[in-house]
Structure formats: structure tokens, C-alpha cells
Amino acid sequence: MPLLEIKNLTVAFDTSVGLFKAVDGIDISVDAREVLAIVGESGSGKSVAMLATMGLLPNTATVTADVMRFEGKDLLAMSPAERRQIIGKDIAMIFQEPVASLNPCFTIGFQIEEVLTWHMGLRGRAARDRAIELLRLVGIRDGAERLGAFPHQMSGGQCQRVMIAIAIACNPKLLIADEPTTALDVTIQKQILDLLVKLQSETGMALIMITHDMGVVAETADRVIVQYKGHKMEEADVLSLFENPQSNYTRALLSALPENAVGDRLPTVSDMMFEAAPGVSR
Question: Residue limits of the ABC transporter domain (predicted)?
């Protein structure tokens, strides 16, 4: 049984011009200890699908699925209170834009300890010691001093490490990383990716990596789902995807890698015709 199993997920938003389907009938599953990459252009529904799984979409969103199970438990049938016992503990998420994701009004220490108190029952010295340990695990050595810092007093890379510390605080069984290297410079991107892979290997948690970067996919994933306009275009293990992509859209994504530039011109996805999923215009 997969750790997370989703079948026929659809997410629609009520807009001034009617319903807009951001995700249209996709299936997603991930096994324990597996690294799954969900890749596609901006607007392909990658983040929306995961936010739907987490129950973090606004009331304007309508979420339906034939199956949405975690460890065999029906997420859609749970009450909000029951779901909160899982979200943030057994399923955790690292969001885009780490500086914006942290609350600017509270210290780093407060935000880490809040999770430990809510889900693990730790308070006082026990919560503080665990927070310092988590900062050390994510590569912030002066954790005791950093607990009193506010997000604006830390760099983007440090804030991303804090977000990772919060996400792994309760030893989740599934970690969702949504574009975890966005807005970071290349050197810090490599450090963050190496950290996530190291933590996944050491803890045995499953990891879903949301990205538009095929290089990240090649370095981190066991299996890949390619999305376009809310549809799943292809799913394969990472080696098969790169060596023998089945959809023209996947081939277009691979052709747009920087190493395929001709002179000073980089191929774009729009340069190639691709197979459209039902309802997707060519």
C-alpha cells in the first residue's frame, strides 16, 4: 500500500468568470522512503495539488477525489480536527519563499517550539533543547543564539533552513518540498538540496519534490510525474524519463535545458508541438 495515494484529484476555483480547474483528474502516489519529483512549468498545478492534500486551500477552492489516503486513512473523510493531527506532524511541507513563510512578528525559536508544543507536547527547556538540535541538524551551528532572532535578521538560505527545521521537527513520514531552492543563489541551492537528500536518507521519510528544474529531478528523484495545465502528461522512473521520454511535452522540457542551447538561443517548450491531455489545447 502506498504511503500517500490520490486518485482522480480535481481542484477548481470559483472566479468571476466561472470555475477554473487548476488540477484536472490526476493520480499521485508515493511509497515510504521514496523520492517523487513533480515537475512542470509554473501554473501546471503542482503546488495546488499538494496544498489540496494538506487541506490548505482557500474556501474558493473545490477539491474532489475518488481516493485521498495517507497510510490507508481517508483524508477527505476526516474532520478538520482529525486532519490537523496529521498535517504538520506526519505530513509536513516546506513552502516557497522562506522569508515570506515565516511570521515576521515572532522569533525563530518561538516558531520552531510552537510546532513541538502543538504536536509533541514539549514545553520549556525540552522544547528549547529540541529546537537547538533541529537547527544543528539543518546546518545552523549557533542555534542557541539564533533562537532569539527574527526572520528579517537572517539570510534567505538561513530562513530556508529554519523552514526545514520546522518541517522535520516531528519526524514526518512524508515531507513535501515546494520549490525549496526558489530565490536562493546557486551555491545555497546546492546546499539545500544536499541537506534534503541527506535528511531523507537518514530518517527514511518519503519526499515529494515540486520543481520546474529538470536538473533537480535528475539529482534527487526516484520517480517523476510531469504535469501541464493540471494534467499528468507522463510518469516514469527517473532513468527512463531522461533516456526515453514518452510524451512530446516531456521531450520539450528536456530540450529546453541550458546545455541544449544553440548559439545564444535556448530552445523553449513552445518551440515544439506536444501531445495534449484531454481538454488541453495544443
Answer: 4-254
**N- to C-terminal Cα distance for the chain?**
36
**Chain Cα centroid distance, residue 175:** 7
Q: Is the pTM of this model over 0.85?
A: yes
- Quick count: other Cβ atoms within 10 Å of Cβ 83? 18
pLDDT tens string 153-184: 999 889 999 999 999 999 999 999 998 887 77
For 42, counting Cβ atoms within 10 Å of its Cβ (0-12 exposed, 13-18 middle, 19+ buried), the class is: exposed
Distance CA 72, CA 80 (A): 18
C-alpha distances in Å from residue 23, one per residue of 20, 53, 55, 126, 151: 9, 12, 15, 42, 33
Calculate the average pLDDT of the chain.
Answer: 89
Q: What SS3 class is residue 112?
A: helix
Evaluate the CA torsion angle 247, 250, 36, 72 in order and state its sign.
negative
139-149 pLDDT tens trace? 998 989 999 99
CB of 199 closer than 8 Å to CB of 137: yes
Q: What is the pLDDT of residue 253?
A: 85
pLDDT computed for residue 215 by the predictor: 84
Q: Which amino acid is at 141?
A: R
CB contact set of 233 (below 8 Å; sequence gap of 6+) = 40, 226, 227, 247, 249, 250, 274, 275, 277
42: left (phi over 0), alpha (psi -120 to 50) or beta: beta
pLDDT of residue 239: 95
